[in-house]
Amino acid sequence: MNLFAIYELPFWSAFLIFILFSFIGWISEVIYVGVTSAHKFVNRGFLHGPLCPVYGFGGVVILMLPPSLYATWIPLFFASMILCTIVEYFVSWLMEKLFHTRWWDYSHYKIQLNGRICLLNSILFGFLGVVVIHFVYPLMIDLLNSLGQKVINVSGVIILAVLSVDIFFTVRKLVDFANVMKKLKELGETLNSHYGQEEWFKKGSFIDMINSVIERADNRKEEFNQKILEKIDKVQNLHLPSVELFIKKFPSIKSTKYKDELNMIKEKIHQKIEAAKKKDKQKN
Fold first, then answer.
1. Are the CB atoms for 18 and 47 separated by under 8 Å?
2. Which of 17, 115, 144, 234 has minimal Cβ neighbours within 10 Å of its Cβ?
3. Would you tell me how many other CB atoms lie within 10 Å of the CB of residue 155?
4. Distance between CA 201 and CA 192 in Å, rounded?
5. Is-contact 257 100, C-beta < 8 A?
6. Phi and psi dihedrals of 208, rounded to 5?
């Protein structure tokens, strides 16, 4: 197998290169987040496995550039920068359209576009493209050459099967996430509909509405619909591992449709973390 454009490779060879890029991207994300913010291991990405497919697509896009560009540095840098930035913007837009949620947000950066992309990341993509073409991709080709096409084909089939299962369960969790946000929003609308004209009712955030009803119900429970109080009680004791998992993976996550509801869950997670810290201090 020689070093040529990815579209000239056999399907399973190209697929394994996509997987390798996704794995390298996952490692990069874990190290970056661990060093700069979380200061601990965080399994980045949507999938359960150690893959960030957006990096796989970015790497494949770079490898679809004209082969004559591979020998260059500056043109390759700008081509990689532009193409990978387009991929990142598109993925952000698509995920927001599908789940009404923005999974990353660069609004706090000085030079950014709609919070989906930023200049810093684009520059890093440019450097990554140069490193990939000149150093990483040749090693990948050497690895595939050492395996042989039969091993590549079998490995590709197995990895695709495992990846398909992972994607299936991840999509289920994403759907659950969207459904939870929808139910919380419906509860907020119900509270506003039933008690919106009352002087004691706070029409601010979702948390304000919930708290105002709870405070009132402590003294005048007979005024309230029992089913509504039961729903509020469920919200108060909400245990949503799938939702919490996504929030921990993507701390800057924002929802275009369920802003208040998502903020409430973030607050609950923060309270859990603070409570755990207090327990640890008491033990020590």
1. no
2. 234
3. 16
4. 8
5. yes
6. -60, -45
Largest CA distance in the chain: 78
Q: What is the pLDDT along the chain (284 residues), one digit of tens a residue?
A: 445 567 788 999 999 999 999 998 888 888 877 776 666 777 777 788 899 998 998 888 888 888 788 888 999 999 999 999 999 999 999 988 887 788 888 888 889 999 899 999 899 899 988 988 888 888 999 999 899 999 999 999 999 999 999 999 888 888 887 888 888 888 888 888 888 888 888 887 788 888 888 888 887 877 777 888 888 777 766 666 667 777 777 777 888 788 878 887 777 777 776 777 777 777 76
Instruction: Report in angstroms the alpha-carbon separations of 76 from 41, 116, 131, 177, 216.
Output: 33, 23, 10, 39, 64
| Amino acid identity for residue 12 in this structure | W
- Tokens 């698509």: give the residue: 94
DSSP 47: S
Length in residues, the chain: 284
- Token pair of 202, please? 């706070």
CB 245 within 8 A of CB 103: no
Burial class, 41, CB count within 10 angstroms (exposed 0-12 / middle 13-18 / buried 19+) = exposed
String of DSSP letters for 154-188: HHHHHHHHHHHHHHHHHHHHHHHHHHHHHHHHHHH
Residue by residue, DSSP assigns 237-256 as T---HHHHHHHHH-TT-EES
Place of tokens 């289920």: 172
